[in-house]
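Our consortium's second objective concerns turning raw sequence data into structural hypotheses that experimental partners can test. To show how far this objective has progressed, the report includes one record in full. It was chosen at random from the queue rather than selected for favorable results. The single chain below, 362 residues long, was entered without modification.
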Amino acid sequence: MTDIEAAALTTGGDVGYLRVATEEAWATQEIVDEWKRMIEAGEGGRGFHSLVGHYMTSDAERPRFVRAGLVDSDELRLGHMDAAGIDHAILALTAPGTQALDGSRGRAIATNANDILAEAVERHPTRFSGLAAVSLEDVPSAVAELERAVAKLGLRGLIVNSHIRGRYLSDPEFWPILEAVEALDVPLYLHPNTPNDSMIGTLHDSGLDGSVFGFQVETSMHALKMITSGVFDRFPELRLVLGHMGEALPFWLYRFDYMHAGMVAAGRYPAIRPLERKISDYIRENVWMTTSGMPAPEPILFSRKVLGNNRVMYAMDYPYEYVPDEVRMQDALPLTPAEKKSFFQDIAIDVFRLEESKLLSR
């Protein structure tokens, strides 16, 4: 057994920092039941059935673990957090969230989910914070629900599980929601979804449409569409959070800038037009990244180097990924004590505007 594998994982900050896990999946029983109904009815499209159909119906060990963890916000989840040394978790409605539902059904489920999540936070204020869900297809009601969830319920941002039945936040139709996120001074967490039906074909046929690859393809494209459409020129204070080590965006910065400049000069695509900054600038200045499911030190250290030490923060991705040794791997990163405190605790407090006094009262 290595020293890392033997290291005890404790909560309470004895290691010099609190571990704040910033991408932790959660669901209500109501939305799970609706997804199961859709599966039985053959609704939702190919990506929905690939993702949700697997996790909601498979008898394999991992899907059963995921199903149990998603709907729990008390003893089971807290026990797993304690065993992995996780002090605080930011909970968000798991993919595909309301985005596989029509507007009316999505609105009701999102409102109820926000109420239930706020109650869980109230029961365990030192252990949980939450992100709001909305039904994105009804923009005025989405804005109203986001404002209620943040101002009245105390939720700390907005979760968007990527595409909205094949549409994206780069579409100006959705920009009033982004305007509200910016005005409320909360982050937007852009979480993966399976690719929409117009792009999933070869990925699905190859078995690569899910978290192994398709998630990254779809969500990194969504983030790039937001940048190239001018979202961050319109909303320069908007904070975007991406999981899974930025869905690989940090590794492409030079190429993004080089190719985008050439396309603008050539006038090749109507959708590609001049921006106020380089693509790499938006990624460095408007985007934060978490390590959900990506605990290996090399990509973490590389991303910190190219983006800045204040742009990469810890996440686990529970219950889809629950491997306490991955916590130990990140505890062992070659960082100073102050850098580890920032990585595990301080960046999350700043980005999500967490109440530090509550975290430290444990």
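The partners drew two points from this record. The chain has one domain: 3-357. The chain has a mean pLDDT of 95. Both points have been shared with the crystallography group to help prioritize constructs.
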